[in-house]
Every structure is written in C-alpha cells, then in structure tokens.
Amino acid sequence: MSKENLSEQDIRTKYITPAIIASDWDLHTQIREEVTFTAGRIIVRGKLQKSVFGVEKKALPHLLCTTNMLLHGIEVPSNIRHDNTLARPLRDYSPKDRVDVVITNPPFGGTEEDGIEANFPANFRTRETADLFLVLITHLLKN
Predict the structure, then answer these.
(1) Is 132 in a helix, a strand, or coil?
(2) Burial 59-77 (b: 16+ CB within 10 A, else e)
(3) Nearest partner of 121 among 135, 107, 108, 133, judged by Cα
C-alpha cells in the first residue's frame, strides 16, 4: 500500500510513533496517540477548558485557531490571544508561567520585526523566528 492511501492514523501508527519510540521516548508515559471516542461532539469543560492557551500574531490564523478550538470542544476559547508571543521579554516570565507541554508550529524561516530580539538574552539575539521560539519554549517548559 502506498503512503498516499494511508490515513492520518495509519501514518502515525506506522511511521511517527515508531520513530518517537526509537528516540527513547516511553510509549506508556510520554506519548499519547489521538483516539476517537465518538462520531459526535465532545464538550470540554473544567480543567482542560482552562488549561489551553494560545497566542497568534496574525489575524487570519488567530481566527482559524479560535474556530478550531470551538470545533474541538473548547466552548469559549478566551485563552487564545491575538498578539505577538515574542514581544514579551523573556525575563518577564515567572515560574507560574511555566508549563508541562508546549504544542506549537513556529514560523520557520520568518524574520521578526526590529527590536523583538532585545527581549532575549544577548547570546540568543536573532531576528529568526524559529530560533527565538525555541529559546522561549525551552524557557517555558517546567524542568
């Protein structure tokens, strides 16, 4: 069977998950595969509803993100802000801002506006967006 005929689930199961396991990730404690529970809509409330945060700089992707949250059961995606994540100085993040998981799609190959690089330590200053995001993600993750 060619890869073009595989479903997203098949690709994850046959290619992505084995590659992650080969990189010494534990299948039972560090990896979660998406599971479909029902053909209907699942409404997310409580802790998860309050635990999903996001920031998107551009208007259209922000709209798509909030719409996607609605479609996936986040009833009020109020924690999805329209802003530039990199505009906040790294030093302004406190331990309460640390998170267990970061899911992102940084804009690889992008260039930030002048002055944004000043929000980062001197040894990490660049205008390349993916590099700045990697520094930020490393800083935000709990140990």
Answers:
(1) helix
(2) eeebeebbeebeeeebeeb
(3) 135
Q: Residue written as tokens 């302004």?
A: 92
Q: How far apart are the C-alpha atoms of 140 and 136, rounded to whole Å?
A: 6
The pTM is what? 0.62
Mean model confidence pLDDT for the chain? 82
Total residue length of the chain: 143
CA dihedral defined by 8, 14, 15, 18, rounded to 10 degrees? 130
Query: In this predicted model, what pLDDT tens digit does every residue of 16-34 receive, in sequence order?
Result: 788 888 877 777 777 766 5
* CA angle (51 as vertex; 72, 99 as ends), nearest 5: 125
Alpha-carbon gap, residue 36 to 4, rounded angstroms: 22
CA distance 82 to 85: 9
